[in-house]
From TrEMBL:
It holds the Pfam family Aldo_ket_red. Residues 15-304 form the NADP-dependent oxidoreductase domain. This is Predicted oxidoreductase. One of its GO terms (cellular component) is cytoplasm. One of its GO terms (molecular function) is oxidoreductase activity. Keywords: Oxidoreductase.
Length: 327
């Protein structure tokens, strides 16, 4: 597995990371044993970066990850998002990133994960009621105590990135970035590169839109409420994927490998997070690290999926309003 460094001050990780959210039923039921086997397969393949959140399955995901890495903690970097407030049914109630909340959320995450430190700790969203300086300062205090190694951000805009980085060096920004979601290229990517901040890109397969297999949505799958998966938007987006699949076939790779490799090609400071619950899909994703492109191939991909090509917003309106990165 190839390696990349997250920003100027962040850790060296595998070139791709494993996103674990789907293992806690975000996309419908997930098989626990297969999920754990997928994490084991990732570690065996040299994938070191595991991404989770304390609100994924209301703590379920952290407990699952802890079980999977037991005895192998020194092989992984744990990237944890915090601050999301959810009720028993899973509905979001908002975000809390007050300094006192940082200490509280972190204590619970350390306990669930069975570790004494988290490698990259980040607020899941910007809390409009709390200055980002206060949140980052509180995480910096946890670095001094040895409970956190690096600070990350998630889905914030250029101004917030600068304010946060002025308080403490930021290792990476986690943000959606892929062939069907390229808004990060408008201003944010320029800012992170200026400041020496890495990118961990999620949604590289557009939540399953970019796939060689037909899309099916199970009960409880949140994508059923996402604009890109509805009506005419879905038809238009699948037509884009069909064109990308043609390019992939000519290159003798899967369309998923094409999409992951494209994100890898964006720069050595970009690490794609591949979310999967199955070993076969993980093996497919891992194969993307060896895929390279000619200038002509990149131009062909650009012609099919330029910035803004996808139909519909990536989240429903209520969730879009929570994204500082979209302001």
């Amino acid at each position: 597995m190839q390696k990349r460094q997250l920003g100027a001050t962040g850790p060296v990780t595998s070139a791709i990371g494993l996103g674990c959210m789907g293992m806690s039923n975000a996309y419908g039921p997930a098989d626990r044993d297969e999920s754990i086997a997928t994490i084991h397969a990732a570690l065996d393949a040299g994938v070191t970066l595991l991404d989770t959140g304390d609100f994924y399955g209301q703590g379920h995901n952290e407990l699952l990850v802890a079980e999977a890495i037991r005895g192998r903690r020194d092989e992984v970097q744990l990237s944890v998002k915090f601050g999301g407030l959810r009720d028993y049914e899973g509905a979001f109630l908002g975000f809390d990133t007050r300094p006192v909340a940082v200490a509280n959320f972190l204590a619970y995450s350390l306990q669930r994960l069975g570790t004494d430190h988290i490698d990259i700790y980040r607020p899941a969203r910007l809390d409009p009621a709390v200055p980002i300086e206060d949140t980052i300062g509180a995480i910096a205090e946890q670095i001094e105590k040895g409970h956190v190694r690096h600070i990350g951000l998630s889905e914030v805009g250029a101004e917030t990135i600068r304010r946060a980085h002025a308080v403490h060096p930021i290792a990476d920004l986690q943000i959606e970035y892929g062939l069907l979601e390229r808004n990060v290229e408008r201003e944010i990517l320029e800012t992170t590169r200026e400041l020496g901040i890495g990118i961990t890109a999620y949604g590289v397969l557009s939540r399953g839109l970019i796939s060689s297999t037909p899309l099916t949505l199970d009960a409880g799958d949140y994508r059923g409420h996402a604009p890109r998966f509805q009506g005419e938007n879905l038809s238009r987006n699948q037509a884009l994927v069909d064109k990308l699949a043609e390019i992939a076939r000519a290159k003798d790779v899967t369309v998923a490998q094409l999409a992951i490799a494209w994100v890898l090609s964006r720069g050595e400071d970009v690490v794609p997070l591949v979310g999967t619950t199955k070993r076969a899909r993980l093996a497919e994703a891992a194969g993307a690290v060896d895929v390279t492109f000619t200038e002509a191939e990149l131009a062909e991909i650009e012609a099919v999926a330029p910035l803004g090509a996808a139909a519909g917003t990536r989240y429903a309106a209520e969730q879009m309003a929570m994204l500082d990165s979209e302001r």
